[in-house]
Amino acid sequence: MVSELQQRMQDSFVEHVDEELLMDCMRCGFCLPACPTYLATNQDESHSPRGRIALMKAMRDGDVVWDGSVEDSFDMCLGCRACEPACPAGVQYGVLIEETRVAVQQAKPISITEKAIRKTTFDGVFADQKKMAAGVKLVQFYQKSGLQKATRKIGFLNLFPPFMKQMEAVLPTIETKKKREPVLKPSSLKVAFFSGCLMDTLFQETNRKTIEMLEWLGADIVLPKEQQCCGALHGHSGEMEKGMRNAKANLKAFDSDDFDYIVNNAGGCGAFLSEYGKHLEKDPQFAEKAAEFSRKTIDISSLFVKLGLTAKLKQMGGAEESLVTYQDSCHLRNVNGVFLEPRSLLQDTPGFEYKELIDAGSCCGSAGIYNILQPEMAKRILDAKMKGVKEMQPAIVVTSNPGCLMQMQMGIQNEGLEKEMKAVHIVDFLYDAIHQNQTQG
Amino acid sequence: MTVHSKDLFVSIVGKENVKDTQAQLLAYSYDATANFQAKPDLVVSPRSTEEIAEIVKICAREQIPIVSRGSGTNLAAGTVPSKGGLIVLFNNMDKILEVDKENLTITVQPGVITQDICNFVESNGLFYPPDPSSMKISTIGGNVSENSGGLRGLKYGVTKDYVKAMTVVLPDGETLKLGGKLAKDVAGYDLMSLFVGAEGTLGIITEITLKLIPLPISKKTGIAYFNSLEAAAETVSAIIADKIIPVTLEFMDKGTIGAVEDFMKIGLPLDAEAMLLMEQDGNEEQVERDIQQMIRIAELNGATSTALASSNEEAEVLKTGRRAALSALARKRPTTILEDATVPRSEIANMVKAIQQISEKYDVQISTFGHAGDGNLHPTCLTDVRDEDEMLRVEQALAEIFHIAIELGGTITGEHGVGEMKAPYLEWKLGESGIRVMKAIKQSMDPQNIMNPGKMFAKETKMRLVINNGQ
């Protein structure tokens, strides 16, 4: 007898997971060496893209019983999508894992606590920039009030899982948010800035520098007021409808023909923005706008290169004093194919020598909120990543995404290397290096 | 499998080296062969030859089937546990044990990835030539058990040409050491050759010593495009007839070029009917002479355009594209079923022509690529397993390809193995007496048939087709 849950789960897979996309996988195994969880589990096929696709198909066909191990296999996926560029057959793994998460989410009985957390996260904080700002205010208060010092002292955080404690240690210091006035100067290039919910709160400084640099490079920056969290977090957690609710709000906020580009400085968000078009292609009202939006979406490194920053950096010259390396943002690399641009900027930054990190293109374990949900696997992946960092001993590890930034900083602290090196967002890195160069020159 | 036997296996390898969850059993139910799937009862990762010997003894006592599995890239359902039982993995036996620079050998455990061996020896100025397209994923143990070929087979041969010694656990659990770091050895039957390409049906290989050669000083890569398949095939024969033995002489037809271009986006011409990828290595002077001569021969045989790779990186990109050909073809239809029928080189043009006719006759979409210089083609049927009528036609088309290959003096499989998939056709190639000898060997070594059962030998042979070719 098939249990009620099994039947419901199978029906949900049939309804939500596209059979044609599953059939694209011919099981050649070319994805295996690209998958961080396959490697971190000493080659466990059930934690590989090929294995997960086989499990999706088996769920659909009723060839496997839904249990903790099947759920684990899907949950353990970072969603880094490194398997996609490795796949000669062009399997759309990102779509399949998102569909799977929707299928599971719809059919699975959820505990009351998880429901509450999901509700606060997806309907509360990440759906509303004001709430996000309020939440961040708390962190700010916590830091400024001396409470941070106090809690660190009394070991209040020992009550939380070890991960939370480590994460707390790498929270960036938050500056008080200043009122921003949109700058309107005559320019050939009009750029709308997608400020990102985390980037606009926790990493406000980085956003300020982003705008300053773009203006310095001659772009007109517009900051649409009503913009919201991109919705990636929802989409990757089986809450695609809610993700699309955010997407539509953003499409309205950015609804103007005037913009040449919509720029972002967070790889994870950028990838999701660039896929609005794909996600909404069947939406009669938004399909066209979404496609247009995605076409105009660009990451900050690519825009810097387009605006001639590489040449400007080259002109500055200067001795190569410290070592800098780069950890790719998975989605920037695997979804948007952007990996040369940040490297070319770093190679030409005055005062620094650029060196390629071993396996720079493989995930650091941050993966959205993966490091909170799967702390053990995330740590294993981070530890492997830090081996290469330790070997190279760079002064700075540059990243292109807030999650990666915090994860790499955590890695540095775990290794006790915070005196020797730090993780820095690419915009902050470039901004500081240019200022340094100009004050010296 | 009884709970008791499971406990025994756990006690040998340790709990952390056993896989038995729903998800894991499903994830080890397939390899890279379309339409073959069966779940094992248990998956174990032993850590030594001794542990494997103990495992096999239990399997022999309890009559439990054993399937050795590397990375599961097999293309003939050779690593699908069709009779259930135990899957043995080598992820804990993945060490390079020794490089012997005086005898030019490397000794490895079976779980080492082929590419890692190549990279390692090349950094020491040495060379391990066999390079199956899946070398980034496949294990050396799998390569030896399948006698894998690759892109460099034309000049350097296949895996069996490099196996010098091995340790094997026999179906009764006894351990056998064969060969040595020797240039010559005629002590008795060549038992080692029996295990190379035996597809895990005679024992489990647990350690391998491979022959190495000095790394060639230079190499050059060229490409030629043609507006007919025949012109490309004739170029291949002409190059060999001109007494040039290139490292690589690879062929891709229009459909394959399109699929690879779709994946790699390297600017391959989509209107070309066929493409040849040519490579020569050796000393600089000879490499230059041979590659220029091959380009000239291609032009004489009607190449519409030719070019030399400007750098090693560019050459690598072209070869990567060729290696991805099969998987890239999967873009076109839900199911890809490929063959590796092989003919004498001189028959390559006839074989290519026959495949075209068969494709039309059965109304089956076939794209062909492969190691043209070896006479080893990979005609690939692009189909959909859910369409029963089409699958029937595919089966007929494949059978006819086997038939023609044998007629032309060839074989049903050049490098992918027999497995479960081609077992019903093996007798076509070997004849009744060939099968009888092979079965006698299998019976004497593995009387209980526990080693990879259901592979190599089919319950019944397919009826040989009566074909009116081309009518």
From TrEMBL, chain A:
<keyword id="KW-0411">Iron-sulfur</keyword>
<dbReference type="Pfam" id="PF13183">
    <property type="entry name" value="Fer4_8"/>
</dbReference>
<dbReference type="InterPro" id="IPR017896">
    <property type="entry name" value="4Fe4S_Fe-S-bd"/>
</dbReference>
<keyword id="KW-0004">4Fe-4S</keyword>
<dbReference type="InterPro" id="IPR009051">
    <property type="entry name" value="Helical_ferredxn"/>
</dbReference>
<keyword id="KW-0479">Metal-binding</keyword>
<keyword id="KW-0249">Electron transport</keyword>
<feature type="domain" description="4Fe-4S ferredoxin-type">
    <location>
        <begin position="13"/>
        <end position="45"/>
    </location>
</feature>
<dbReference type="InterPro" id="IPR004017">
    <property type="entry name" value="Cys_rich_dom"/>
</dbReference>
<dbReference type="InterPro" id="IPR017900">
    <property type="entry name" value="4Fe4S_Fe_S_CS"/>
</dbReference>
<comment type="function">
    <text>Component of a complex that catalyzes the oxidation of glycolate to glyoxylate.</text>
</comment>
<protein>
    <recommendedName>
        <fullName>Glycolate oxidase iron-sulfur subunit</fullName>
        <ecNumber>1.1.99.14</ecNumber>
    </recommendedName>
</protein>
<dbReference type="InterPro" id="IPR012257">
    <property type="entry name" value="Glc_ox_4Fe-4S"/>
</dbReference>
<feature type="domain" description="4Fe-4S ferredoxin-type">
    <location>
        <begin position="66"/>
        <end position="91"/>
    </location>
</feature>
<keyword id="KW-0813">Transport</keyword>
<dbReference type="Pfam" id="PF02754">
    <property type="entry name" value="CCG"/>
</dbReference>
<keyword id="KW-0677">Repeat</keyword>
<keyword id="KW-0408">Iron</keyword>
TrEMBL record, chain B:
<dbReference type="InterPro" id="IPR036318">
    <property type="entry name" value="FAD-bd_PCMH-like_sf"/>
</dbReference>
<dbReference type="InterPro" id="IPR004113">
    <property type="entry name" value="FAD-bd_oxidored_4_C"/>
</dbReference>
<feature type="domain" description="FAD-binding PCMH-type">
    <location>
        <begin position="36"/>
        <end position="215"/>
    </location>
</feature>
<keyword id="KW-0274">FAD</keyword>
<dbReference type="Pfam" id="PF01565">
    <property type="entry name" value="FAD_binding_4"/>
</dbReference>
<keyword id="KW-0285">Flavoprotein</keyword>
<dbReference type="InterPro" id="IPR006094">
    <property type="entry name" value="Oxid_FAD_bind_N"/>
</dbReference>
<dbReference type="InterPro" id="IPR016169">
    <property type="entry name" value="FAD-bd_PCMH_sub2"/>
</dbReference>
<dbReference type="Pfam" id="PF02913">
    <property type="entry name" value="FAD-oxidase_C"/>
</dbReference>
<dbReference type="InterPro" id="IPR016171">
    <property type="entry name" value="Vanillyl_alc_oxidase_C-sub2"/>
</dbReference>
<keyword id="KW-0560">Oxidoreductase</keyword>
<protein>
    <submittedName>
        <fullName>FAD-linked oxidase C-terminal domain-containing protein</fullName>
    </submittedName>
</protein>
<dbReference type="InterPro" id="IPR016164">
    <property type="entry name" value="FAD-linked_Oxase-like_C"/>
</dbReference>
<dbReference type="InterPro" id="IPR051914">
    <property type="entry name" value="FAD-linked_OxidoTrans_Type4"/>
</dbReference>
<dbReference type="InterPro" id="IPR016166">
    <property type="entry name" value="FAD-bd_PCMH"/>
</dbReference>
